[in-house]
């Protein structure tokens, strides 16, 4: 098997070293700049103190949900606490998003070694970046805004009235900061190819992204536009635990630079620390499974066995699986090219490839179950080798041996690739988060148990089969899309292209889509859930709430950021009289 350029000659090796060198320098400069911003903010924050020792409400976390709650809460006495620093304008450039992973603005989480999946990754571990910055994970996500359908939430709430209240976020279009993103030819071709198989434009389309004039726009940006004089936000401050006294959550214990202090909340403490952060914080506060807490020497305040359980994530497969004959009009070098950066800031942002969030087309497919969709496609115009192996393979944790055997040869041959990910939307496998120790600065144990249910493997194989059909349609053939004919290392024992081969492939190339949810699920009682679905209050504690992606009982049939916003809005609408809730814009 040989890869060739258009005129049949292999490209010169110099172009390979050029990409690697160029990219390495770009990444180095970007990392230094981000680090510099980080330390400037950090030193600045060390000199600030909270103005008061007591507030009506304390919101923990300024991410997607936390900043939305802060925007909408009808209270003028609120403290927002964020473990990360302030954001800066450079981070608003959409295409820089992979550069933020692995910096000080990321929590650097990774999963435990997986037995049934992630075989192509070092120690079978998946990396889980998450935002540690004002704006949270919305600051480093791909910005796809998913408009969810009521059908997906039919078993989330106890009554129809609650479901109606939750759906108001989507039905009233409360988030209007969306634009159609940058696309290459690939997005159009993919959609056309799917249409020739009978899919409609409601199923395969160019997604909306959360940008304004080509710049990233998060709920934290939105919060910056509202005038809330009684609000205070502290950054670079870690909430260590919630202090519950006589069944009432009364204060939070926080720390910064070795200093610890307590801040009281008169009416409520709202955890919006994310799927990992909120579960971890409850466990450190003595709210969780009693036996587990006892082993770590943490006194149990409320025995809630479901804290940390029910962890679910969207996963996908396929990198360098689809080759493309003709290169597209977006080169990975664009990300760090000074000329491009200059044009972005001086010209029309939206026309620049830097306004690109990574994904140019999506597709939703149903296999006829209880959900609107079972499989999603995301189309990206590059592959993990496109940056010369400088950065992407590290953030995806690819083993060196696999890199040299499978990915690097493509790069050396100058073979262009694209990424079309089939995504498992409703996994049957369940994982959990537990504490590693009673030290609050230790990362928790994250075990998603990817692909422990065979049905999950099956859906991904169906996705690959459908992708084969799509790439065989005339529009895709014309663009020169074809499946990579090289067997994946470790799977050569299976007949190529058999279901057994694809099972091995899926278990090797298991990519997270970064959508973990469910660790503080909502429901009706403390036996089946962590918070009440009627108002998101933690069972058995007064004045303590969780409102973020962790309360989702299951995954939505698409990207979850908008659903985290809807949960935040639901929290506000459920706990404050309608007349007092901030007017809609
Ligand atoms: C690479 C990547 C790409 C993604 N792409 C998309 C996409 O295209 N579309 C989409 O819909 N979704 C996407 N997502 C997922 C989406 O961004 C998340 O589901 C969403 O941001 C979750 O919001 P949240 O409010 O629950 O948590 P977060 O936004 O993570 O907010 C939690 C905040 O709490 C802070 N915090 C945590 N613990 C503490 C503590 N102890 N003390 C103080 N502060 C604390 C954190 O620093 C953080 O700021 C992506 C995620 C990633 C990582
Ligand atoms: C990773 O998976 C492989 C393949 O199943 C297995 O042989 C290996 O022991 C696993 N490694 C770890 C660290 O669990
Ligand atoms: C659909 O939901 C019903 C009722 O909750 C359940 O019995 C059934 O197993 C579900 N079907 C699938 C395919 O999950």
From TrEMBL:
MF term (GO), any: flavin adenine dinucleotide binding
Keyword annotations from UniProtKB, A to Z: FAD, Flavoprotein, Membrane, Transmembrane, Transmembrane helix
Protein name: Glucose-methanol-choline oxidoreductase N-terminal domain-containing protein
Domain of life: Eukaryota
Domain Glucose-methanol-choline oxidoreductase N-terminal residue range list: 55-315
Binding site for FAD: 133, 137, 239
Family: Belongs to the GMC oxidoreductase family.
Glucose-methanol-choline oxidoreductase C-terminal domain segment(s): 427-568
Cofactor: FAD
Gene3D superfamilies: FAD/NAD(P)-binding domain (3.50.50.60), Glucose Oxidase, domain 3 (3.30.560.10)
InterPro entries: FAD/NAD-bd_sf (IPR036188), GMC_OxRdtase (IPR012132), GMC_OxRdtase_N (IPR000172), GMC_OxRtase_C (IPR007867)
Transmembrane regions: 20-40
């Amino acid at each position: 098997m040989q890869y060739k350029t258009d005129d049949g000659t292999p490209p010169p090796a110099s172009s390979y070293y050029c990409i690697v060198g160029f990219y390495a320098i770009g990444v180095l400069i970007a990392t230094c700049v981000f680090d510099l911003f980080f330390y400037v903010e950090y030193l600045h924050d060390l000199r600030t103190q909270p103005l008061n020792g007591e507030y009506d409400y304390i919101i923990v976390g300024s991410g997607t949900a936390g900043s939305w709650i802060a925007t909408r809460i009808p209270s003028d006495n609120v403290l927002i606490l964020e473990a990360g620093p302030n954001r800066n304008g450079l981070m608003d450039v959409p295409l820089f998003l992979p550069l933020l992973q692995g910096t000080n603005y990321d929590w650097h989480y990774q999963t435990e070694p997986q037995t049934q999946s992630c075989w192509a990754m070092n120690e079978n571990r998946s990396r889980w970046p998450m935002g540690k910055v004002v704006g949270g994970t919305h600051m480093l996500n791909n910005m796809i805004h998913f408009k969810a359908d009521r059908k997906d939430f039919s078993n989330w709430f106890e009554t129809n009235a609650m479901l109606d209240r939750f759906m108001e976020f989507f039905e009233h279009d409360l988030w209007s900061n969306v634009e159609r993103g940058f696309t290459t030819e690939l997005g159009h071709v993919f959609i056309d190819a799917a249409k020739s198989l009978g899919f409609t434009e409601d199923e395969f389309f160019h997604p909306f992204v959360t940008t304004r004039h080509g710049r990233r726009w998060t709920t934290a940006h939105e919060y910056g536009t509202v005038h809330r004089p009684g609000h205070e936000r502290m950054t670079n401050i870690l909430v260590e635990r919630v202090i519950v006294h006589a069944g009432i959550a009364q204060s939070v214990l926080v720390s910064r630079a070795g200093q610890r202090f307590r801040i009281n909340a008169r009416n409520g403490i709202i955890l919006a620390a994310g799927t990992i952060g909120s579960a971890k914080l409850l466990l450190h506060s003595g709210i969780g499974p009693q036996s587990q807490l006892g082993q770590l020497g943490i006194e149990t305040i409320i025995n809630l066995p479901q804290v940390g359980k029910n962890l679910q994530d969207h996963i996908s497969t396929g990198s360098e699986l689809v080759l493309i004959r003709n290169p597209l009009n977006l080169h990975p070098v664009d990300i760090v090219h000074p000329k491009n950066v200059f044009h972005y800031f001086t010209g029309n942002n939206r026309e620049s490839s830097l306004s690109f969030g990574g994904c140019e087309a999506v597709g939703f497919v149903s296999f006829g179950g209880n959900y609107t969709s079972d499989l999603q496609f995301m189309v990206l115009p590059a592959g993990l080798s496109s940056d010369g192996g400088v950065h992407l393979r590290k953030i995806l944790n690819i083993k060196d041996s696999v890199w040299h055997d499978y990915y690097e040869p493509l790069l050396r041959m100058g073979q262009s690739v694209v990424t079309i990910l089939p995504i498992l939307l409703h996994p049957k496998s369940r994982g959990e988060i537990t504490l590693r120790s009673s030290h609050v600065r230790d990362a928790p144990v994250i075990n998603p148990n990817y692909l422990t249910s065979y049905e999950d493997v099956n859906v991904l194989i169906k996705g690959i089969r459908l992708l084969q059909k799509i790439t065989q349609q005339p529009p895709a053939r014309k663009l020169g899309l074809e499946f990579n004919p090289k067997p994946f290392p470790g799977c050569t024992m299976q007949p190529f292209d058999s279901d057994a081969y694809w099972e091995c492939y899926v278990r090797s190339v298991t990519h997270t889509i970064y959508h973990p949810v469910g660790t503080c699920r909502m429901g009706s009682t403390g036996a089946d859930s962590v918070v009440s679905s009627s108002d998101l209050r933690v069972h058995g504690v007064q004045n303590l709430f969780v409102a973020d992606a962790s309360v989702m009982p299951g995954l939505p049939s698409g990207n979850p950021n908008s659903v985290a916003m809807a949960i935040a809005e639901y929290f506000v609408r459920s706990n404050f009289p309608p007349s007092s809730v901030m007017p809609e814009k």
